[in-house]
Amino acid sequence: MKREELFLKRLKNFSISVIIFCRKIKHSREFLSIVNQMVRSATSIGANYTEAINSISEKEFRSKIYICKKEAEETKYWLEIIRQTLFSESEIDSLLQESKELCLIFQKITFTLNKKQNKQGNK
């Protein structure tokens, strides 16, 4: 299996885990929008990565990867909010850890893309 396919599977598993986790959250008025935002951002990571690996240009690839990074950061933010307000650390730590790792991966990708773009711009 290609590296991209393995990573996409990881992103899909993360999305599914977030959805399953969100089913445990009490559906109060104040947390409904947080849950909706978190599900949207978590599932958007994999959707945008799929678009990135199927992009037709480097510019489109870069754009989709930046979106992945932003969505991973947003998901981490919502997980931290929920952790501090609703759940004990042990119930959410694995999701929070995975979101942090995804943020680091996309940070590395965007750093590499920026470095490559800067080298091409200097030619």
Task: Tell me the helix content.
Answer: over 70%
Q: What fold name goes in the CATH topology slot?
A: de novo design (two linked rop proteins)
Just give the CATH class.
Mainly Alpha
List the total number of helices.
4
Q: Kindly give the count of domains.
A: 1
Shape: elongated
Q: What's the name of the CATH homologous superfamily?
A: 23S rRNA-intervening sequence
Backbone structural class: mainly alpha
Q: What series of H and E elements makes up the topology?
A: HHHH
What's the gyration radius in Å?
16 Å
Most strands sheet: none
Whole-number mean pLDDT: 89
* Gap from first CA to last CA: 36 Å
β-strand percent reads under 5%
Low-confidence stretches: none
* Gross CATH architecture: Up-down Bundle
- How many strands appear in the DSSP assignment? 0
Q: Can you walk through the features of this model?
A:
The chain has a single domain, classed as 23S rRNA-intervening sequence (de novo design (two linked rop proteins), Up-down Bundle), CATH 1.20.1440. Helices cover 86% and strands 0% of the residues. It has four helices and no strands. α1 packs antiparallel against α2 (29-53), α1 (3-22) packs antiparallel against α4 (89-121) and α3 (58-85) packs antiparallel against α4. It is elongated and about 50 Å long.
Write the layout of secondary structure elements.
Elements lengths: L2 H20 L6 H25 L4 H28 L3 H33 L2
Helix pairs in contact: 1-2, 1-4, 2-3, 3-4
List keywords for this structure.
single chain, 123 residues, mainly alpha, de novo design (two linked rop proteins), 4 helices
Quick summary of this structure?
Helices cover 86% and strands 0% of the residues. It has 123 residues and is mainly alpha-helical. The longest helix is centred in the C-terminal third of the chain and has 33 residues, at 89-121.
